[in-house]
Amino acid sequence: MIDLKGKVAVVTGGSRGIGRACSVLLARAGADVVIGYRGNEKAASDTAVAVEAEGRRVLTVAGDLADAEAAQLLFTRARDAFGRVNIVVANAGIWKHAPIDTMTTGQWRETISANLDSLYQTCHFAARIMKQQKSGKLIIIASTAGQRGEAEYAHYAASKGAAIAMTRSLGSELGPYGINVNCVAPGWVLTDMTTDVFENPEFRQSIEQSIPVRRIASPEDIAGPVLFLASELSRHLQGSILSVNGGSVMA
Ligand code: NAD
Question: What are the structural domains, with CATH classification, of the chain?
Answer without folding.
Answer: 8-191+219-244 (3.40.50.720)
